[in-house]
Structures are given as structure tokens and as C-alpha cells.
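On clarity, I found the account of how folds are encoded harder to follow than it need be. For illustration, here is how one protein appears when written out as sequence plus C-alpha cells.
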Amino acid sequence: MEPDPEGGRLMNTLNAAEFPILSHPMNWGIVRAEFLLTQQFDERYVSNVSIIPVMGERYVVFQVENGMWELPGGTLERGERYIEALEREVMEELGGKLLSYHVFGRFDCQSSAEKPYKPHLPFPHFVRLVGYGEVELVGKPLNPQGGEQVVAVDVVTIDEALDRFQRIGRQDIAELYKLAHRIRSRG
């Protein structure tokens, strides 16, 4: 990963052997997504935002009622900017307060659906932002009706976070945590 002299972004030079999922286009049902290692994005196309939450040198992970460990974040509500959506999602899913957020990548997505997931979202091309950030756990997850029901929030080492995601077959999330850890370690 090297700075891009034209825009200060990170160049997408992921090692395919080390990041096999993120290095190739993905199909999420009706959505085709490609991960780009960059800090640049056009906010008009952002429909989703995700965070690799950190507390000092440790990482926050959360588990939902079906036993799966998930990546915090979600879809923007009508009128929300991505940072507002992220603040809301961190409180809902982690019981946390967002202290900082640093975008390091995005999924460029193309939907083959007939209409957008929600009418206010960009369609058929949209962006899912990915970043890392400091959080402070201030209470219990809100578990809003109709949302994911969180049963556990843990603060763990990077190795423990990777192990939890890999054990449930979520190599994609494991790679995002690993990449965030590498970027943070390099400053």
C-alpha cells in the first residue's frame, strides 16, 4: 500500500495471496462489488458505511442472536450523512460512541435489482465505505426493533478477532480487520 501522488489516497495494491476475498470482485446476491483500497469517494453514492472499531490496541467485535460475528455498520437512513449513520449504528450495535473514523476503502457496488433497496439510496451504482475508528463503549447495544439483535460485544486482540470471523466462515470480514490493523500499524 502506497500513497497515491495524485490524490493522497491509498493505491489498491492488495496482495491476492494475503487478501484473496478483497482482491477479487464479489457477488452478494443481486449486487456485484469490488473493493478499492482508497480514501477517495463521492458522498452522493454512499449508501452504506462500515467500521472496524478499535479501543486503543484492541478491536471490538459483536455477535448477533444467530451466533454470527458481524461487521458494525449499516445503511443510511433518509437525510443522513454517512458519519451520522455510522454514529447511529455504533450506538445501536455496540452501545458505543464514535470518537474517530478513517476511511481506507470502499466497495463499488452495482445492483441488478429492479429498484433500490430503499427509495432514497443511490441506484443502481452505490458505494459502501469501510474504515476504522476509535469507539468508547458507553452502554448496552440499543437493539432497535427490526434491527440485528446483539447478544455480545467483546474487546479482543487482532488475532482473536480474526479467529472469530474465520471460525464462522466470514473470511471477508477477517480480511477487513486484518487490513485495518496493517494500515493502523503503519501509521
Observations:
- The chain has a mean pLDDT of 93.
